[in-house]
């Protein structure tokens, strides 16, 4: 024993490195063990639903999964197959996985897809935005949009994940919680933005829209990957060398907050008796005709604002969901056009975490957001009502 400790003391550098390696390996193995326990618990909970008996005249619930393998730097497929797929299969659903190969493919596939019981999005914010757009572009959108849509956050940035699920630093727990929520059929209402161009088909978004210099510089951050932690500052710095000040002219037409329509179906009142129906018919027959002008609804007044800004963003309330609110509205953020170059570089280092914000790049685009009727029901994402607004970029 004395020789053993003497050897460790004489080779203290190797001993220190070995202890560090063993500590890291033990921590890594413990994390893997905890992840396996989470998967096992989620599978056991899903199996309870799969063991339920189906009536003879009922069909197995069909689920169509749109998986983006490129999400999370190409790790989305592995994350889905290890953490989400077993739960879906054990729940008793007939699962069909559709893997997207390129951007925009989900929109085209949804235009041709037949009816299903559940649509599941396995990817990031971009994949979710494509699926929402594909669903609401269909000719039978009124009926097809009633299909619940589930969201399994597999991307690097999932802006809505903290709204839909409890925050967790464990990726496995985050995915299993989202998948179990789909199996249980839990839903929550969220807003949908409808963006219309002059010629293009409408595009739909869940979080919002950005247009301006911060957005343009943020797109080029990956171009300076070789600068490491300085890549964000470099992108904004080189952006100031091209043109300054970078101002954008726009005209916004908007209305104040509107009352939220009732989300649930109204109860049908009981049919009155025959005697009451006869009296109602006689009363309506002998009643004096009302003035048609008095029945006209006064048109809604739109307010118009001309502005000059360096960045304009329009966001929904999905990131700060309040189900008790009785009003529908959006947030419009107008950054001042007097930002200096130094402030532009400093502020650009902390961009808003809204990766699915759509962007305006053409010379003239109009944005219209309106209420979807009937609302598009999503599993944990339910397209609902949005304040009307129109934006014209000059």
UniProtKB/TrEMBL annotation:
The keyword Aminoacyl-tRNA synthetase does not apply. It is found in: Mitochondrion inner membrane; Mitochondrion intermembrane space. It catalyses: 2-(5Z,8Z,11Z,14Z-eicosatetraenoyl)-glycerol + ATP = 2-(5Z,8Z,11Z,14Z-eicosatetraenoyl)-sn-glycero-3-phosphate + ADP + H(+); 1,2-di-(9Z-octadecenoyl)-sn-glycerol + ATP = 1,2-di-(9Z-octadecenoyl)-sn-glycero-3-phosphate + ADP + H(+); a monoacylglycerol + ATP = a monoacyl-sn-glycero-3-phosphate + ADP + H(+); 1-(5Z,8Z,11Z,14Z-eicosatetraenoyl)-sn-glycerol + ATP = 1-(5Z,8Z,11Z,14Z-eicosatetraenoyl)-sn-glycero-3-phosphate + ADP + H(+). GO terms for cellular component: mitochondrial inner membrane; mitochondrial intermembrane space. Component of the TIM22 complex, which core is composed of TIMM22, associated with TIMM10 (TIMM10A and/or TIMM10B), TIMM9, AGK and TIMM29. Interacts with SMIM26. It is an enzyme of class 2 (transferase). Residues 58-199 form the DAGKc domain. InterPro entries: AGK_C (IPR045579), ATP-NAD_kinase_N (IPR017438), Diacylglycerol_kinase_cat_dom (IPR001206), Lipid_Phosphate_FormReg (IPR050187), NAD/diacylglycerol_kinase_sf (IPR016064). PANTHER family: ACYLGLYCEROL KINASE, MITOCHONDRIAL, SPHINGOSINE KINASE. It is a peripheral membrane protein. Its cofactor is Mg(2+). GO terms for biological process: glycerolipid metabolic process. Its EC number is 2.7.1.107, 2.7.1.138, 2.7.1.94. This is Acylglycerol kinase, mitochondrial. Belongs to the AGK family. GO terms for molecular function: acylglycerol kinase activity; ATP binding; ATP-dependent diacylglycerol kinase activity; ceramide kinase activity. SMART domains: DAGKc (SM00046). Pathway: Lipid metabolism; glycerolipid metabolism; Glycerolipid metabolism.
């Amino acid at each position: 024993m004395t020789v053993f400790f003497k050897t460790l003391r004489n080779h203290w550098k190797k001993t220190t490195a070995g202890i560090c390696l063993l500590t890291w390996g033990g921590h890594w193995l413990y994390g893997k063990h905890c992840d396996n326990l989470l998967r096992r618990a989620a599978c056991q909970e899903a199996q309870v639903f799969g063991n339920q008996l189906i009536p003879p005249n009922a069909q197995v619930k069909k689920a169509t999964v749109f998986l983006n393998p490129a999400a999370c730097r190409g790790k989305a497929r592995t994350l889905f197959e290890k953490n989400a797929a077993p739960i879906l299969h054990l729940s008793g659903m007939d699962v069909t996985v559709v893997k997207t190969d390129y951007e925009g493919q989900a929109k085209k596939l949804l235009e041709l897809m037949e009816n299903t019981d559940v649509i599941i999005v396995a990817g990031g914010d971009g994949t979710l935005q494509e699926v929402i757009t594909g669903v609401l572009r269909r000719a039978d959108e009124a009926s097809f949009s009633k299909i619940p849509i589930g969201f399994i956050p597999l991307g690097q940035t999932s802006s809505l994940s903290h709204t839909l699920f409890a925050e967790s630093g464990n990726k496995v727990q985050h995915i299993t919680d989202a998948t179990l929520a789909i199996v249980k059929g839990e839903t929550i209402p969220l807003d949908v933005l409808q963006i219309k161009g002059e010629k293009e088909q409408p595009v739909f978004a869940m979080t919002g829209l950005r247009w301006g210099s911060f957005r343009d510089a943020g797109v080029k951050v990956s171009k300076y990957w070789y600068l490491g932690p300085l890549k964000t500052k470099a992108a904004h710095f080189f952006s100031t060398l091209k043109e300054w000040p970078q101002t954008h002219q726009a005209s916004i037409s908007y209305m104040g907050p509107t009352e939220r329509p009732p989300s649930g179906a109204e109860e049908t009142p009981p049919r009155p008796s025959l005697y009451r129906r006869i009296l109602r018919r006689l009363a309506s027959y002998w009643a004096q005709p009302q003035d048609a002008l008095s029945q006209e609804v006064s048109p809604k007044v739109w307010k118009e604002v001309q502005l000059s800004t360096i960045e304009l963003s329009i966001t929904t309330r999905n990131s700060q969901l309040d189900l008790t609110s009785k009003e529908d509205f959006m947030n419009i953020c107008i950054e001042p056009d007097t930002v200096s170059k130094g402030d532009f570089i400093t502020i650009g280092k902390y961009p808003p975490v809204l990766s699915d914000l759509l962007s305006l790049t053409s010379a003239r685009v109009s944005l219209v957001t309106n209420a979807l009727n009937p609302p598009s029901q999503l599993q944990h994402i339910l397209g609902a009502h949005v304040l009307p607004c129109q934006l014209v970029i000059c």
